[in-house]
Automatic annotation (TrEMBL):
It comes from the Bacteria. InterPro entries: Homeodomain-like_sf, Transposase_8. Coiled coil: none annotated. It comes from Cryobacterium ruanii. This is Transposase.
């Protein structure tokens, strides 16, 4: 993928913003937290196993 040439300041038009932020339901978060509590595994371990960022469990 070719990037557009930069001419001075970065603008919304020439900066790739990346992926859209995923939203998780409260039920999904509760189940993830329950996994941490019930299994005794670390938050980071459960988050990695679920394929999410550990910060997602606290939002």
């Amino acid at each position: 993928m070719a990037l557009p040439p930069l001419s001075g300041h970065l603008t919304r038009e020439n900066v790739h913003m990346g992926k859209t932020r995923r939203e998780f339901t409260p039920e999904y978060k509760n189940e993830a937290v329950k996994l941490v509590i019930d299994t005794g595994r670390a938050v980071a371990t459960v988050a990695r196993d679920l394929g999410i960022n550990e910060a997602s469990l606290g939002r």
